[in-house]
Amino acid sequence: MRSSPTAPASNLYSNTRRRTKPDGVKILSFIALIITTFLMLLPLFFMVSTSLKSHREMLRFPPSFLPESWSFGNYSEIFDTLQFGTLYKNSLLIAVVTVLGTLISSALAAYGFARYRGRGNSLWFMLLLSTMMLPYPAIMVPQFILFSKLHWIDTFLPLIVPSFFGSAYNIFLLRQFFSTLPEELFDAGRIDGCSEFRMWYTIALPLSGPALATVAIFAFIYSWNDLLTPVLYLSSSDLFTLPVGMASLTSSRFRIPPWHLLMVASVLAMIPIVTLFAIAQKQFVEGIVLTGLKS
Amino acid sequence: MLMMNKKRGRLISLWAFVLLISVVMAGCGGDKSAGDIVSGDQEGAKNAGGDKEQVTITHYTIDSPDRTFIEQLIPEFEKKHPNIKVKVEKAPYEQFDSKLQTLIAGGNSPDVTSHYGYGGFAEYYNKDMLMDLTEIMKEEGFNSSDYSIPDNLMNIYNVNGKTYGIPANIYVTLLLYNKDMFDAAELPYPPSDYEDKSWTFEKMVDNAKQMTVVSKDIAKTQYGLDFFWSERDMRPLYFGAQPYSEDTWTNGGVPSETYFDSPEVISAYQTLFDLIFKHQVSPTSEWSKSVAGQNGDPFVAGKIGMSVGGSWNLAGANDFPFKIGVAAVPWGGNDKVRSTLYVDPLFILKDSKHPKETFEWIKYLLTDEVQEKSIELSGGNPPVNTKAAEAYYKHFEGIDPEDVKKVYEGATKCGFESFNHLITHYSQINDMFINEMQPIETGHKTVEEVMPTIQKKVTEILKR
């Protein structure tokens, strides 16, 4: 005898309904979350709204919530006034290569610190960490002299090459992650005749997705926002980066800054960071799934 | 196995990509440095066989249109002087000083610049960064009157008979007023004539009282006066009180004594803070920030009747959404000084390898024709050249050129160069003033309580 298909379905439905029946606390917490989200997004909203206002409207107080007349022309104007395309391209190129350099060099060094034991191991590690305490202004002049002697001034090299020599913070972060990987995996590799380098890239790296994604985000944001280094090393306008160009908009002490254009630049500058974060977030989730493989 | 191969393939392509990019970058790099690093002498060697050795000089400036306009003046100069190439090196305002110091320390000193950053002339002079121009001026037969530069301005950058800088631009203090607010309060406009004896500080405060509306609704609140006469440490001078000893102005900016705790100086500051707390005709700094942002000016938002400040405020005049006028700074108790002058000179740096060629460029920038052209190109920079100044007075839409002229001439006559150019360690002094005066501005401390600390701290900074 065929059972009626509707009965269990309605049961299921009513069960589901019962399970998700909203309670007062949940409603309140959602309302609180929505309000907080709205408040957090408000500056972002004003950034986009100001980027679409005219120069005159931008000066008005109290500021209008939405632009009176939508000046979409601001988005093309920034490409004329600021060589925005060139700045964007330069920043992107430097950031991408810096991320690759940081990932490769930091992961290699971190792997060494995490997996090999030798005399003075912790001393070297302490020495490495101590470089984090050196503020940039302290090494600014000696580094400038070095790159000047190498004839690298007014090129991207001083901005990119240092990333291929590791960074203490990222090495530290990756080392901590590599130390948590189970020794058995590497032993298994060794038995199968795996070389040390291959263990790094076939065992350690694929298991370190979340840590590598974190380092990639840090390296990208650092390079993307860096202002002082490009200011020091670049002198030709066609090599300038986005932060240098954007700083020039507020550099005049004697003029009202074109905030609307600065907001256009900020909106556009945000895109790569948001995109990278969206990609890396997926990596985080995958990483969490992968942790099931550990010990 | 397939997975393994796939991963290896991906890894190999990643490495190949990195290598490719590095090679491309190195290629670009090599190209660029080869062209730009070449010093004038090396270029000269390349061009050997020409009449004169070719040199490249570097002009270091701020990366903003009102400074980088000089790039447009270069082609004509290079046509007139085929042996001199001019390169413009620029930095944003905040990084101007750091880059300059690094360039000098790294042996890549620019040839010509001005004190466009936080540091002023005295700081550069005391760090021994500047070249003494006296000899070169004599050799070249430089006469300031040929460039219509007033003698009193020429003397600002003279220490012990030696000249270290040649004035190029001059800003003064002026009173900018919102005509719409004056009309609404049915008040007559303030005078632009410095000889008008009826125009006093008290009269200005009276006018301000009639325009001030303090309401709970921030959109309705407006104030009559914003008084930004110079930097904080210089303001007592407006009322006739001297905060630094006289020798400061002749010895390169190192005061032997300061008088920030004297009754005259304390009373001057009291008068200023009374504008906010007693008469309530001036806004608190919190209100200004809420209306105009961190470094903004609430005058621009149409919420201030009169704003006493640097003449750069005029530059945005054509964009203001209300009618404005300019007036003289009223008499405040000092017969000699009513205005702060901000004279931007051009310096040749001590490590310049081509001072003569650099001087040639400076002279070109100071000619009547170039100074006049620069007003338009820079969007309204006031020239020091009195002939070119006539064109500057006519630059502002809706403001009577006659008023601008009277205000400028009066202010120059009874003006004193801004302390930030004349006193050593100034950026530290200024920071200290901002921090120490904060509690007075927020109403947490009185002037009498704070001034002895300021006096002590200024003395300490100057001893460094």
From TrEMBL, chain A:
It comes from the Bacteria. It is a multi-pass membrane protein. InterPro entries: MetI-like, MetI-like_sf. GO terms for biological process: transmembrane transport. It is found in: Cell membrane. GO terms for cellular component: plasma membrane. The chain crosses the membrane at residues 27-48, 92-111, 123-147, 159-178, 199-224, 261-280. Its main location: membrane. SUPFAM superfamilies: MetI-like. CDD domains: TM_PBP2. Keywords: Cell membrane, Membrane, Sugar transport, Transmembrane, Transmembrane helix, Transport. Residues 88-280 form the ABC transmembrane type-1 domain. PANTHER family: ABC TRANSPORTER PERMEASE PROTEIN MG189-RELATED (PTHR43744:SF12), ABC TRANSPORTER PERMEASE PROTEIN MG189-RELATED-RELATED (PTHR43744). Belongs to the binding-protein-dependent transport system permease family. This is Multiple sugar transport system permease protein.
UniProtKB/TrEMBL annotation, chain B:
Residues 1-26 form the signal peptide. Gene3D superfamilies: Periplasmic binding protein-like II. The lineage of its organism: Bacteria, Bacillati, Bacillota, Bacilli, Bacillales. The keyword Ribonucleoprotein does not apply. Keywords: Cell membrane, Lipoprotein, Membrane, Palmitate, Signal. It comes from the Bacteria. SUPFAM superfamilies: Periplasmic binding protein-like II. This is Carbohydrate ABC transporter substrate-binding protein (CUT1 family). Pfam families: SBP_bac_1.
